Amino acid sequence: MRVEIVAVGTELLLGQIADTNSQWLGERLAEHGVASHFHQHVGDNHERIVLALRTALARSDAVIVCGGLGPTQDDITRAAIAEIMNVPLVRHEEIAEAIRAMFASRARSMPDNNLTQAEVPEGATVIPQTRGTAPGLICPVGEKVLYAVPGVPYEMTDMFQRAILDDLLARQRAAGLTAVIRSRVLRTWGSSESALAEAVADRFTALQSDPNVTIAFLASGIEGIKVRVTARGDDEEHVAALLAREEALVRQAITGAFGDIIFGIDEETMEHAVAERLRAQGETLGLAESLTGGLIASRLVNVAGASHWLRGSVVAYDAEVKFDVLGVARGPVVSPEAAEAMALGARRVLGASVGLSVTGVAGPTEQDGQAPGTVFVGLAVGDAVTHRRLQLPGDRARVRAYSAISALDFLRRSLDERVRSA
Amino acid sequence: MRVEIVAVGTELLLGQIADTNSQWLGERLAEHGVASHFHQHVGDNHERIVLALRTALARSDAVIVCGGLGPTQDDITRAAIAEIMNVPLVRHEEIAEAIRAMFASRARSMPDNNLTQAEVPEGATVIPQTRGTAPGLICPVGEKVLYAVPGVPYEMTDMFQRAILDDLLARQRAAGLTAVIRSRVLRTWGSSESALAEAVADRFTALQSDPNVTIAFLASGIEGIKVRVTARGDDEEHVAALLAREEALVRQAITGAFGDIIFGIDEETMEHAVAERLRAQGETLGLAESLTGGLIASRLVNVAGASHWLRGSVVAYDAEVKFDVLGVARGPVVSPEAAEAMALGARRVLGASVGLSVTGVAGPTEQDGQAPGTVFVGLAVGDAVTHRRLQLPGDRARVRAYSAISALDFLRRSLDERVRSA
After folding, report:
1. Per the CB 3.0–4.6 Å rule, which of A120, A222, B6, B160 could disulfide with A92?
2. Which residue on chain B is closest to A197 by alpha carbon?
3. Backbone φ and ψ of A135, nearest 5°
4. Domains in chain B, please, with CATH?
5. pTM to 2 decimals?
């Protein structure tokens, strides 16, 4: 059972809005073990919608088409579906009545164009609206099926969960294709995609002959490189076991090659990893940021409950602020000494138990005799003050972003190290 | 000239990442008057990539395929293209050398799989990398063309701007589709899309009969709402005149209805607008950020030369930091008084001439008796200390982001006001 998603709307092609519907539907289908091999975007044009839907029906078993069901002149999905089904559009009196009633209940007069939403391809089953005016449609096309839903995410998600998912799963069962698909994402920081791939090459090769387990890599910029393990099978328990086994093997391969570079799983970001450790160790954090300009703090405040362990940050962009506020000794401010002094200063000024600092050269020109991309991270924990030197690639924005996650990773590892050596 | 975008990656189908590449490319193509009628997503599967590309080549004149060019086993776009071109993959020695050199320059050993990135379909032209390892490709397919770029946005956007756009426009000209298309984007903050549309409704109606000038609205979240005026014609001078005339009329309509809400044009962000005014007035800025957690500072440091006017920021996430470091009187910290005290404190502590502060409730629960979305911006310029109260919609991340741009807009308008009343 292969489901294709077709999102209709010229605004998608023009890049004026992001297609969150396909992403949401893709995630739901995967959760329920329904394969989805293709997505399409097409504009508000009759011939092209027909072409996109015919293409989808040719290569997939079911199609979910989102958008173009509203009341305005550019809502033409209904007519395109009628052409594909080779049937006329007929007025569905119950829908017309529901639309009239909805306007009446809000004491609003109804523009006549709203009744176009009651036009339904002959032979289609209606999915009633509970949140808007345009109903959804379930349209048989030979042995295949075409589901039409509004493009408004709030209405689309409701119809999918209320009417489409069960219909799809029933068809999947009827075709004898029950399957469960589960994934696990391992998030890493500190290695390259190619080196990771090499580290797990043996697993990759072993899985060539196993259609039920796959490994994929996903370079996610400043979120690190993700390694996704996916398992499929007929029942939940078996799939969970397959996934757990493969995850353990991949973890072993990665940590064997690179050490502790897996900082989280699935949706856990680096800031979550840091937050968890600070909380567990009862520490509070004070930051001193130079080239990152507040980026580290602004990532950390996204973690729920950050106020329990985050005191704040001194963004010391100007050297004088480093001297006057943080107590850094006058002299070069891109140096190990300055980084350490900043970490101590942040801890003191902000009244925190842990101080983390970043100073460096974002570029494009050198500073204090240091090349662009040279960054020092300072860390004050307990009686220890340490630093780490980084050499980062990229333009100013990237050097900043990499500095932020690298500094947090340094903190994560240092907090772990402390527990291990305690 | 119709261009289709094909984004490759199983993670797109599974909904694990959003396809920002198609959106970005769609926007760029539209800006340059290049039609794009379809987008597709396809997973990391050889047969299906081939099918998606053949489908695209059948219904469009050019195809941009993003992703699947990396060094790992699931990067198979190159092989799919070779099959479509019906040619072998050949090792491109210059690319291999560049990849080796890149690893050497970072003093890292190169995993052998990186050299798969030097495999190129015979007859393809290479787009050299400047930001990563996988080169791009320009592949002739009969009269049509297939451009392949990496899926990493940072690398993709660079290759598009450096090599693909000009090639596309040259093909468009060769096909006799020469037209000069120029756009001007007016960036606004402080009105809604529907209200803006209403304000320029007369222009919109007047242009219905003019195929050469169009107005479009683009809600861009925390970048505000953009109003794009586009003019087309056969020569540069004529188009420039059309554009200038329409821009003046639209500006008049907007400022007539809402006052000074246009803060920049084209690529000028709010932080550029603020930077320009601070520089012109010889002021330096110190920030005090609470719920924004460093977001304002981290936006400002993106402006080149920020060190000339930005002193830094005190991110006072914890109330104690507001009291101890910024000198706010003990009491509720989400209040007009606290915002003004924070602005004064930031100015004093950071040694700046202008102090800007933000304090408020990001949510989801209330604080100091204030509802989520309640935000106070404080400003200290010269002898004046003022504040502004905002009520912002959305979840925590959105309240933060809106707070940041609203605070900068308040500073922008206040600095302008000062000049006007001087």
Report:
1. A120
2. B72
3. -75, 160
4. 3-174 (3.40.980.10), 180-265 (3.30.70.2860), 273-421 (3.90.950.20)
5. 0.78
